[in-house]
Amino acid sequence: MANFIMTRYIYLMLLVLMIWSCNNKQKGVLLPVVETSYETTDLDTVYGVPVISDIVGATNIYSEESILFVECPDATHQLKLYSINNNLEPIANLCTKGRAKNEFIDPRAACKQFIKEDGHTKLLMYDNYSNIKTIDITESIKQGNTIVDKVEAAPVNLRRGRSIYLSTGEWFNHYELHYDHPIDGEFYVPRFTIGFNKENSLDNEIPTFGKVMFISEKNRGLYNFVYSGSMRLSPDNSKVVFTFFHMPYMFIFDLKERTGKAFHTESVLSFDKPYPDITNSSEIAYGYGDIDVTDKYIICLCPEGTQGDYTDPSRRPVVRFFNWDGEYLFGFYVDKRTYYITFDENSGLLFGLETRGGEERIYEYDIQKYLK
């Protein structure tokens, strides 16, 4: 009799687990979702001052220790450094083209990640989508040329996701939405993992998505838009933030607890609902654009509106500051149609990269009054 009761109990528990698993698979987002909102009107406009007038071919900017880094893939030197504390005087030109250890074919700081080792500041730079080269910035400035510490295969190919190196020696990996066949195949949800494994293993996954959101057949190409985004590591190595370019979501992962939260801004768009049908790409909504992080802040460039709206040269994006608990702090408009931003906390200066009509311009914004 006791065995019969135990057997029935086991079957009951298995049934409960199956129902729970099925219910989870029906959810778009498995993380706890926090509904948020923030003001969208009556914001100040901050006006930028143009700087570094001789920049050609700039595609990205970031900063560390009051040094402004500018990526220029079409230039002979593909990474240019400027001193924020010294009126943006040039410091170094790095990443010459080539295939040698200290040269780069196509350098991209995909997660804009710097690390500190033995008193030196180092930059993790993807090259040609698959390798990560660790540039010793301190030594490169000292010697006047690019010094690469090591070269290794990336845990995740840049074409398939992003990887962040953690101080524990582990990697935090993002695997993008993928498919067996781009036209009529089945799509698989993006995944986030933590581990030492560098063979694209899904061990140690943080359950994030349960199912792929429904998009009608005529808009199938939108799958490549709605799940793409930016990822950054907090300077203290405790959290990772992931924001979506075309969905109103911010995910914040706690690396110690191996958990996360999703912050969803009030919108008709949700991973738990079908994506509204559109007639052309100009109707694709924006979520978050470029992001930067400090110990205190997550700084988000928010284009607002749709891709069609942003073709207007007078369109002004909003820059919004959050803390690492996902709470909105303050925001303001910037006067230029900016695509990339970086914030230097030491000076209270925000830098924005504008690309328009085949030309690139960098602007400096003094935002110290908002930081008090």
Outline of this structure?
The chain is mostly beta strands and 372 residues long. It is built from 3 helices and 29 strands. A hairpin with a 4-residue loop joins strand 20 and strand 21.
Account of the 3D structure:
With 372 residues, this protein is mainly beta. It has helices spanning 2-25, 137-143, 223-226, and strands at residues 33-36, 45-46, 49-51, 60-64, 67-71, 77-83, 89-96, 107-108, 114-117, 120-127, 131-136, 148-153, 161-165, 171-175, 178-179, 187-188, 191-195, 205-206, 229-233, 239-244, 249-254, 259-265, 291-293, 298-302, 318-322, 328-334, 338-344, 349-356, 359-366. The protein has a five-stranded mixed beta sheet with strand order 1-22-21-20-19, with no helix packed on it. Strands 2-26-25-24-23 form a five-stranded mixed beta sheet, with no helix packed on it.
Cα gyration radius (Å)? 22 Å
Q: What's the overall geometry?
A: globular
Structural class: mainly beta
Largest sheet: 5 strands, mixed
| Amino- and carboxy-terminal Cα gap | 71 Å
Strand content: 35-45%
Helix segment tally: 3
Average pLDDT, all residues: 88
Q: How is the largest sheet built, in terms of strand order?
A: 1-22-21-20-19
Total count of strands = 29
Oligomer status = single chain
**Weakly predicted, low-confidence segments:** 9-24
Query: Roughly how much helix do the residues carry, as a percent range?
Result: under 10%
Sum up the structure in keywords:
single chain, 372 residues, mainly beta, five-stranded mixed beta sheet, globular
Give a topology summary.
Elements: H1 2-25, E1 33-36, E2 45-46, E3 49-51, E4 60-64, E5 67-71, E6 77-83, E7 89-96, E8 107-108, E9 114-117, E10 120-127, E11 131-136, H2 137-143, E12 148-153, E13 161-165, E14 171-175, E15 178-179, E16 187-188, E17 191-195, E18 205-206, H3 223-226, E19 229-233, E20 239-244, E21 249-254, E22 259-265, E23 291-293, E24 298-302, E25 318-322, E26 328-334, E27 338-344, E28 349-356, E29 359-366
Parallel strand pairs: 1-22, 2-26
Antiparallel strand pairs: 3-29, 4-5, 5-6, 6-7, 8-10, 9-10, 10-11, 11-12, 13-14, 14-17, 15-16, 17-18, 19-20, 20-21, 21-22, 23-24, 24-25, 25-26, 27-28, 28-29
